[in-house]
């Protein structure tokens, strides 16, 4: 298996290089930039901007800039955020914890809810509960997450709540961790969980349902039934195990969403994640931050795909590392 | 013609299909006819009737400037359909062309095109769209362009698979043996067989494109004020959520129904057009 992982890693390197060129090119093609915008401020002189430019080698030819950036990235130095006046890696580190925490929690909750619902709706295809779940699924897919966020905020405010948004009540934000702070967080956490997770839950549920229906009509399921296996065994060992495989292989694709899926929800709900940070940097053309986050997104996709392949080989003995 | 009729009837027999078709018609007609059926000018302000609830004069209430919410929603749907429609057409034309030609010519060209498509797919939709708009500047046309670019690889990938199979099929090879030109083979033999896949994906893409457009406008990156836009209305209504939730709630509902309609329609179309799913 390690050989497989290693070989995949070798294949990933040229792809990442290609992506890095693309990311860099896109940023270069962008008209203007943060430093140009700085000139609009009368307090900033042209000399200052030129000095910053020289300091970060931005006066050099494009390929020198690219190589300089790339060698920095390889060494873990992602450059400098002009917008925040701090190194990019520091800024990302600060937000990474909450981002990963929220994302992992959401992905976990999504699967735990969606998979059983998908199985249930496939088995009781014409039942009332399944029809209802299906219909809610359609709504889940069609509702923009900011609408869900606003409706929840509205509901909490109408019910007499005062502190919505964020992850803590004001008095706990800078407080050290304590039991009370933890409970306070749980009281806030459910809103972002629903907002970020609804869409994914609906889509995984629908896919699981479709896969189950597909598998249940297969010959081997009929064979398993006809040889007298208990329905429970047919269901879990024959049907579900096969139906879940396609989902595992696309689960890897959801890893880059760690960064992007929270952009809008985080802006509306005021969450301390990478999403709003990326949004601000994009709009302000804070080039090193944007490049770092885009590269991170691409790396996450590769890692996600690799993890998915490994998980798939583990879940499905028919698939071997080739 | 009778084929169209029986097809429509099959669609309507499924309650979800009927609902999807109904919603889609309602939304499309509402958007197209907005200038004719909207009770007020969507930009006309009535300062005395600010933030009013639904009433006989203003069916869905008024916003913070006293503008009629119903009229603004109808015009907002129009803008949203315009952007979503344009982006899907763009993605369909460019992506479809790249996918079919990649499948048809194969070789290095195929690998190159699909590799570039994969690079685009490596970035989450909303992230890529925001990035493109940050580059081009926010306005309606650029939003359509951004969403179109984001959806292009999806269409390219979608048609490439079936096109590869079709290229090897006997009737395509027969047509080639008879000396049909490449253009003729693609237009007469490949495209008609890809129509159902394309139709289903276009409908489903419209559903998500409406959501992406709304998200971008919500962030202030799509349609610019004072032009009515559903996402923007929802965002502006945020400040008045507790006093007068009408603007936000109704514009959000319009986004939901538009997206839901196309989504249901696309799903039922897929079930109807895919013979493997018949009788399920």
From TrEMBL, chain A:
The UniProt keyword set, sorted, is: Cell membrane, Membrane, Transmembrane, Transmembrane helix, Transport
Transmembrane stretches in the record are 96-123, 135-157, 177-198, 247-269, 289-315
Topology within the bilayer: Multi-pass membrane protein
Q: Which GO terms describe its biological process?
A: transmembrane transport
Tell where it localizes.
Answer: Cell membrane
PROSITE patterns the record matches: ABC_TM1
State the InterPro entries in the record: BPD_transp_1_N, MetI-like, MetI-like_sf
Record-annotated ABC transmembrane type-1 domain positions = 96-312
Q: Does the keyword Nucleotidyltransferase feature in the UniProt annotation?
A: no
The protein, known as:
Glutathione transport system permease protein GsiC
Species of origin reads: Calidithermus roseus
List the taxonomic lineage: Bacteria, Thermotogati, Deinococcota, Deinococci, Thermales
From TrEMBL, chain B:
Q: Which GO terms describe its cellular component?
A: plasma membrane
| Keyword field | Cell membrane, Membrane, Transmembrane, Transmembrane helix, Transport
The ABC transmembrane type-1 domain is annotated at 77-266
SUPFAM superfamilies the record matches: MetI-like
Membrane topology per the record? Answer: Multi-pass membrane protein
Q: Name one GO biological process term.
A: transmembrane transport
Location (main, coarse): membrane
Record keyword Cytoplasm present:
no
Q: Give yes or no: UniProt keyword Signal.
A: no
* A Pfam family of this chain: BPD_transp_1
Subcellular location field: Cell membrane
Transmembrane segments in this chain: where? 16-38, 81-107, 119-137, 194-219, 239-266
Query: What superkingdom heads the lineage?
Result: Bacteria
**Family to which this protein belongs:** Belongs to the binding-protein-dependent transport system permease family.
What name goes with this protein?
A: Glutathione transport system permease protein GsiD
Classification lineage: Bacteria, Thermotogati, Deinococcota, Deinococci, Thermales
Gene giving rise to this polypeptide: gsiD_4
